[in-house]
Design goal:
Layout: H1 2-13, H2 17-28, H3 35-52, H4 57-60, H5 62-70
Helix pairs in contact: 1-2, 1-3, 3-5
Amino acid sequence: AEARLTLAVVAARHGELDHALAIADEALSIDRRSRPSLLMLGTELDDALRRYYPQEARAVDFRATLVAATA
């Protein structure tokens, strides 16, 4: 899951919002994952999404998805 979130961060930073969100959804659906690492990388992705896509509701909504997945 952590590797997938890292790929999502890279995609977001390269202007590939749809790809980044698809990879992130896949990563958050993986059963085996480390919650602290997931939160760290998920927060990094959330920061990138909010920085590069502040007007995109899907990007802004990622934080809620992350919180729900790590609860």
